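Notes continue from the previous slide.

Worked example: a multi-chain complex. Inputs as given:
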Amino acid sequence: MINLTLTEALKKLNNGEISAVELTRDYLDRIEKYGADLNCYITVTPERAMADAAASDARRAAGAALPLDGLPIAMKDLFATRGIRTTAASKMLENFVPEYESTVSQNLINAGTVLLGKVNLDEFAMGTFSKTSFFGAPINPWQMEKRLTAGGSSGGSTSAVAGGLAIAATGTDTGGSIRFPAAITGMVGMKPTYGLCSRWGCIAYASSLDTPGPIARTVDDAALMLAAMAGHDEKDSTSAKNGFKCNGPLEAILGNGKKLRVGVIKEFANVEISDDMKTLFEKRIADLKSLGAEIVEVSIPNILDALAAYYIIAPAEASSNLARYDGMRYGLRVEGNDIYDTFDKSRAAGFGDEVKRRMIIGTAVLSSESYDVYFMQAARVRRLISDAFNAAFKKCDLIVCPSSAGTAMSLASDLKPLEYYALDLFTVAMNLVGIPACSVPCGLAQNGLPLGMQVIGARFDDMRVLQLAKHIESAANIDNRPTTIMGK
Ligand code: GLN
């Protein structure tokens, strides 16, 4: 049953071919068997899962099935779950059990999903390989013997879904954390428009950028997940009024006579990417053309500065958001000689190196000497990029670009902080602007590993982003079940 996509499983549940209890048991068995190898779960919740599944079967039997009733999912361990440990993969929150439920996880409960557990990530979602996790890095299910990264920060989510240890998962994307891990594990990762999914109860990294979204095996699956996760929320002041509706397979937008203009970003043309990425990207563009899309070049003049702006703005917001972990109210406390000493000792012991580095950078760029030259300058770059995207969407309907320069790297690669940051080149601009972007598999590289490309849209054009992604998915037509673990 683990070979079923979410869409297929939902159909079989609805026509009575399978039950939620059977499906959930299958997934729990898989987690038992492979969970430790992949290190994708921080906390597994088998009793909760079986109870959810039984309740789901009862609802369906009573003719009151909910939209995603009985589908076993994994929750990034950044979403607060009532009564279930929520760690943000930090020692600081190793034993934190929230008394409240995040809006996104509550929405998924309301949609009838079954919670399998909480999945691994970079500490406080800061990172690119999920190596900053206090619980160790999750493993990419592709060519497992090579111990490749499943990406980050939502690396536990992609490891679990790609490895068949959850039918879909939640992720969050502040600078690429849904799209990059999805791309290098052959999954679909959708960063919706900022504000579409509530941030309430999602542990904050950089509030003006943090975007919850789904990670799934197919574009249709991601659309169904997004529809369940999204919705206006009074508890998040940046929550959008626009909803996202989808209750079945997405409709084609190409090949039915209508001209769709697809933009390609001029400034990305000179960025160094692998030969495979180049070839596959060009192939998929050719497919779109043959389906009737018109390819147009668009210019986002400052897009290569997005990285620098992001690595000022995100740490600045992080330094403010993470000030709350002081050892007083919740989280780790290490007693000191006085209250300040307790703050110091708790924070020194609770946070990992990368999180500390971000807080130091953030504090520095916000200091009175640096504010104008760093923070304000980054804010101006952000505005320029936003204006350029607005202008670009007058010349085209949607934009495409690679998700990463190459395939998954080894977890043993010893990159410098700046080398990790550079990997976010293709993803951070969309967070600065708040526009939707979906990473969809665009083919397999020569080494047999998957690559992804992004479809980007104007604000609230999430539906068309997914629709075009679906065209690319069918053109690429890869089998995204890694042979090492999906038992073929
Ligand atoms: N790699 C980026 C960072 O470390 C993105 C992380 C994210 O999107 N949460 O900030």
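Summary box: Residues 371-395 form the longest helix (25 residues). The pocket of glutamine is lined by residues 125-128, 153, 173-177, 205, 314, 424 (CB under 6 Å).
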